[in-house]
């Protein structure tokens, strides 16, 4: 087998492993005792460990306290759930997130030093040490809400100010000569155009990349809203629901496939789903079956924010000769089915297995109580076939 073939086989075995674990979870929460199978605590913990490993986690997160969930992250999750996703990447307009499958959010860590700045200046500090060293940072941005200046006219007049965002190289009061700042980006913002305020997004990828490589270099960010003399200053929101937020987009380098392979897989799955819908659900032939995994039933609802569960589906049914075209069986499966029909004792019939799968997004709290949005590849069966 070629190296490429070996890699594909490895990825396929990993995907089947995840679905196998999902099926075991389904059986557990459906009550395996009713089938005569005794579920021990040791069995459950071993299964839980294997499932978490398949999801890229070393252990089960145990949140210490309820954490606020940024509304922007919830909105992003909701937008993704409304789409049919066959890739783990985040495709966000005007953002460099195409190669990222994980997003983490970080709130500003407040300190007594925050009070030393005027209302049009702010120091922000985000602890990003929870980003795994093996993940690759693709993009990072801060989101902050700018409140209207108190003297804004309500007749629609604009008042454009400049917002400068700096990486703090040497910590000190920015007004002192000892402070060393590196300008990251500048935004022109209309401080009178937001009604109850407006959200501003600023790219800070270079700073966060340095922090992940050199944690001791993280001295935070400094924001300065330039205001003309004699004018009241616009202010930066600090309330919990509106406080500055850092979003880090990373790639964990798991299950990456080529664009052409993704297109071929999606096309095959679409054709099979279209033909499967024309078949009656009582058909004993190989087909997709319902399998809902409820996270609350296994005690994971304390760290998984959304979804509360999901329909993973599974494949079941007969693969007997002659097999219908919609199963898109391999030549080997057809030959095996033919031999089985002639002599059932010679070889078993082909197996009904997933042939196309889709990505599922999960919003959860990690072991550091950070809100994480991750897209997991090949979590939902969309097509079945005989192999």
From TrEMBL:
GO terms for biological process: cell differentiation; positive regulation of developmental process; positive regulation of multicellular organismal process. Signal peptide: none annotated. InterPro entries: Cystine-knot_cytokine, TGF-b_C, TGF-b_propeptide, TGF-beta-rel, TGFb_CS. Residues 265-387 form the TGF-beta family profile domain. SUPFAM superfamilies: Cystine-knot cytokines. Pfam families: TGF_beta, TGFb_propeptide. One of its GO terms (cellular component) is extracellular space. The keyword Manganese does not apply. Residues 264-280 have a biased composition (Basic residues). Keywords: Developmental protein, Differentiation, Disulfide bond, Glycoprotein, Growth factor, Secreted, Signal. Residues 251-285 are annotated as: Disordered. GO terms for molecular function: cytokine activity; growth factor activity. It comes from the Eukaryota. Residues 251-263 have a biased composition (Basic and acidic residues). Belongs to the TGF-beta family. This is TGF-beta family profile domain-containing protein.
């Amino acid at each position: 087998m070629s190296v490429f073939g070996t890699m594909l086989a490895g990825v396929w075995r990993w995907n089947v492993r995840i679905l196998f674990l999902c099926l075991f979870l389904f059986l557990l929460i459906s009550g395996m005792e009713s089938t005569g199978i005794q579920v021990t605590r040791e069995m459950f913990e071993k299964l839980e460990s294997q499932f978490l490993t398949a999801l890229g986690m070393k252990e089960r997160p145990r949140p210490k306290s309820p954490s606020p969930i940024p509304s922007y992250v919830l909105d992003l999750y909701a937008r993704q759930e409304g789409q049919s996703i066959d890739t783990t990447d985040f495709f966000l307009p005007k953002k460099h997130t195409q190669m990222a499958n994980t997003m983490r959010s970080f709130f500003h860590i407040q300190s007594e030093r925050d009070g030393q700045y005027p209302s049009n200046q702010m120091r922000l500090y985000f602890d990003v040490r929870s980003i795994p060293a093996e993940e690759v940072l693709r993009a990072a941005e801060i989101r902050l809400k700018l409140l209207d200046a108190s003297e804004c006219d309500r007749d629609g007049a604009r008042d454009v100010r400049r917002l400068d965002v700096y990486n703090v190289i040497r910590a000190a009061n920015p007004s002192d000569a000892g402070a060393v700042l590196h300008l990251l980006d500048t935004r022109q913002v209309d401080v009178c155009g937001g009604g109850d305020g407006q959200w501003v997004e600023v790219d800070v990828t270079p700073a966060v990349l340095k922090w992940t490589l050199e944690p001791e270099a993280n001295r935070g960010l400094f924001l300065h809203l330039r205001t003309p003399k004699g004018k009241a200053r616009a202010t930066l929101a600090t309330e919990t629901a509106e406080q500055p937020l850092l979003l880090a987009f990373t790639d964990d380098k798991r299950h990456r496939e080529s664009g052409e392979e993704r297109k071929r897989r999606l096309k095959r799955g679409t054709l099979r789903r279209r033909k499967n819908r024309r078949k009656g659900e009582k058909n004993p032939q190989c087909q997709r079956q319902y399998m809902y995994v409820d996270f609350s039933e296994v005690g994971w609802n304390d760290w998984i924010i959304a979804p509360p569960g999901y329909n993973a589906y599974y494949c079941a049914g007969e693969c007997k000769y002659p097999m219908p075209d919609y199963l898109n069986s391999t030549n080997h499966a057809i030959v095996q089915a033919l031999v089985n029909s002639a002599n059932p004792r010679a070889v078993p019939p082909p197996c009904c297995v997933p042939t196309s799968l889709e990505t599922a997004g999960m919003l959860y709290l990690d072991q550091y109580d950070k809100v994480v949005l991750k897209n997991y590849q090949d979590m939902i069966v969309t097509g079945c076939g005989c192999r």
